Amino acid sequence: MRIRRAFTVLALALAAVPALAGNASAGVPQPGVDGPIVVNPEVPPIQWPSGNCQTDCIYDKHISAGLRHASVTLKTTVPAKVTFSATPFFSEGKSDSVTENAASTSHGLTLSLSPSTGYLYELTATDANGKSWTETGNFVTRTKKTTVVLDSVQVLDDSDSTGAGEIWAHSLMGGQEKRLLTNRSISSGQTVGLGGASMSWTADDGYDGREVSVQLADNDCDLFGCGSVLDDWPFSKGNWYFKNGSNDDYDYNTVDFMVGGPNSPGTWTGTAATAIGDNLSFKVNYHVVVTVS
User: Fold this and answer.
1) Which residues contact 163 (CB under 8 A, 6 or more apart)?
2) Residues 215-244 pLDDT 10s
3) How far apart are CA 42 and CA 50, in angstroms?
């Protein structure tokens, strides 16, 4: 009785084995049947850019400084608003700030500034959740140098009824006076060089022009000499000093003109407004050189 019962149990156990094997084959991937078994599945790569601006979210940043501006282009790892501001190292110069309010991942901003000035800048990106990242640095805006050169004077009327005039010429540029011609014989219609008298300046904030004055005087001194001595120029500043008029010794006239070169480098020629006097008339030819560095 016991032997028969043991045989029955063993038979039942053996009969169950194929069923268990079948179940295992159906539920577990089998090599060569369902494809290879993946022992260490690949972890998906970390998605860069990051998800916010709590950490560095600014990249591919480029800042360029011009004469009166500075521009920045950059990208952010998430859509963000960007603020670009600049403050001069010292009290001179102009501060400015600009914000790009539209959230984006590509940005371009420009500030209006002063030339020839060092700036500290601040660049802040703020994401949709209010998290922000700030970067700082410095740059220097470019310098424009303008030089005006007096080339020649064309005498239209030498003020002498017979023969050539005895011409003196002086300039006043940037508060500096200079004698250009001394008792030079020049006839009406003649053009004479002025020796390249020049004045240079660098661009400043706002007003960038300079005034130039050129005075011609014709010596009409008689045999008894001159009462107003131009030999003492510029120290004998009489009533005729850079003005238009006449006295017993001289006819004199002055042309005043403004010079302010453009912002781009180059050379430009110009002719001052013609100085028309009762007797002495002339015009001045000049050129302007602008360099940006």
Assistant:
1) 187
2) 998 887 655 556 555 665 555 666 678 888
3) 21
Instruction: Give the pair of three-digit tokens for residue 242.
Output: 């850079």
Residue 166's pLDDT band (boundaries 50, 70, 90)?
confident
Beta strand residue intervals within 89-238, DSSP E: 96-112, 118-127, 132-140, 144-158, 165-173, 176-186, 191-202, 210-219
- The pTM for the full model equals 0.67
Burial 189-205 (b: 16+ CB within 10 A, else e): ebebebeebbbebebee
Interatomic CA distance for residues 238 and 272, integer angstroms: 25
**The tokens 């800042």 sit on which residue?**
63
Confidence of residue 204 (pLDDT cuts 50, 70, 90): low
CB 82 within 8 A of CB 109: yes
Element (H, E) at 67: none
Q: Which of 160, 214, 151, 219 has its CA nearest to residue 187? A: 160
250-259 β-sheet, strand order: 176-186, 165-173, 210-219, 250-259, 245-246
